[in-house]
Amino acid sequence: MSDETFPNAESIFHQAFAAVDPAPRLLQLLNEHPYAAARDLIMCYFDAVAKDPSRAQPLASALITIGRSPDAPTYGRESLYVLFAKELARTHFKYYNEDDMLHKEYGPTNEYLLDCLLSGLSLKLGLTVTTEMYSTIVDGLKAPTRCRRRCSEVMVVGSCIQLLLSGPAITTKFAGPYKKRPREIADKLKAQKRRGIVKDPHAIQVLDVGGFSFSGHIASQKTLAPDISHFTAVARNFAC
């Protein structure tokens, strides 16, 4: 929590995120403590998703609801929605290292894969976008040999998670130099499977779904964004 946070802010934010609909309480807290609360709210959002990945999409949607609310506080010339985008951009893929790929289990206990889940949702819902978010997808498609095998395996799975959640985001002009064609993505994922980099059976499930989703069997880009249910089911298996 930041130095300017109000008393018991972390506990109060966690309680708000635990509600079925966290938006009303979160909006109230932001109006009561506008300058101290915004950054801390984003950190508690990450904590809430780590605690229960199955709620990741509704929690991310709550950020959109309060960010676009006419009752949201403003910050000079910036809206709350813009502030959220900046805070998320400062946070995605900023707090992990290779140990998160090598020595932790799959699922939300792995900070890298958790960030892939959060990043995929940010891309899907338009919460924020950074070059790091796209570059981690591309890195996983390449499975760089500079990493040890376990590291490469986690990078491939992380790419699949982002791709399954964000759908066609990386196939659009907004991806800039990271733009890929759906067929190219499918071919790279299938190549990763043939190389045998991914060994965990649950991770192979994610790899198979990713390869199929971007294959030529899909007629429209609108179908490239499945819901989060498959990942969360697999993530629970990873964490066992």
Notes on the protein architecture:
The chain is an all-alpha fold. It folds into two domains: 9-90, no CATH class; 96-239, no CATH class. 62% of the residues lie in helices and 0% in strands. The protein has twelve helices and no strands. The chain has helices at residues 9-18, 23-32, 34-51, 56-67, 80-91, 98-102, 111-125, 131-142, 149-166, 182-195, 201-213, 229-239. Helix 3 crosses helix 5 (80-91) and helix 11 packs antiparallel against helix 12. Residues 217-240 have low confidence and may be disordered.
Main attributes of the structure:
12 helices, 240 residues, mainly alpha, 0% strand, elongated, disordered C terminus
- Number of beta-strand segments: 0
Parts with pLDDT < 50 across at least 5 consecutive residues: 217-240
> What percentage of residues falls in helices of 4 or more residues?
55-70%
Mean pLDDT: 80
What general outline do the C-alpha atoms trace? elongated
Please describe the biggest sheet, giving its number of strands, its sense, and whether it closes into a barrel: none
Over all CA atoms, what is the radius of gyration? 18 Å
By DSSP (H or I, 4+ residues per run), the number of helices equals 12
β-strand amount: under 5%
Helix and strand succession? HHHHHHHHHHHH
Beginning-to-end CA distance, first to last residue: 30 Å
Q: How many domains in all?
A: 2
Structure class: mainly alpha
